[in-house]
Design a protein that fits this description.
The chain has 148 residues and is mainly α. 60% of the residues lie in helices and 3% in strands. It contains seven helices and two strands, in the order E-E-H-H-H-H-H-H-H.
Length: 148
């Protein structure tokens, strides 16, 4: 495969469709994914271990690789989630700093759109370096704002 060729695949989660009987709009897949994310609360020790793993993996990528990964997930450059992940990446010096940055950024991601975007990127993410960060961020966002 030629590395100069950029392949991009888009996955749509929870397409809205009409139910034949009563005309109610349904978004089943997105609701199931959101329920799974909300139910996957991490213990403090699990979070700490995941933060250490995240720091180790983030040390292996640079800002350009992060930008390409975020582009591959169809995150707009103006997205609050994209901005949060970028700021978290910059603050990932050690596990404590990473957890502090994730907690700060989770407090900023309060809209329904941000939460849906988080669920979406968690399900389509293919970058192993971002997986623990996305999981920690999702856990923190849904723990801080369970009613949104």
């Amino acid at each position: 495969i030629d590395p100069s060729v950029f392949f991009h695949e888009t996955i749509v989660i929870g397409e809205t469709r009409r139910v034949a009987d009563d005309g109610v709009m349904v978004q089943e897949e997105a609701q199931e994914q959101r329920a799974d994310t909300e139910a996957s609360g991490l213990s403090a020790s699990d979070s700490r271990a995941l933060a250490k793993e995240a720091v180790a993996k983030l040390e292996l990528i640079d800002a350009k690789m992060l930008r390409l990964s975020l582009d591959m997930m169809n995150l707009k450059r103006s997205s609050a989630v994209r901005a949060a992940l970028t700021r978290i990446f910059r603050d990932a010096l050690d596990a404590d700093e990473l957890m502090h940055a994730i907690q700060n950024e989770a407090g900023k991601l309060t809209s329904e759109n941000d939460r849906e975007e988080l669920v979406m990127i968690q399900s389509i993410n293919q970058d192993e370096a971002l997986t623990p960060v996305i999981r920690l961020l999702c856990n923190e966002v849904f723990a801080k704002n369970p009613d949104v």
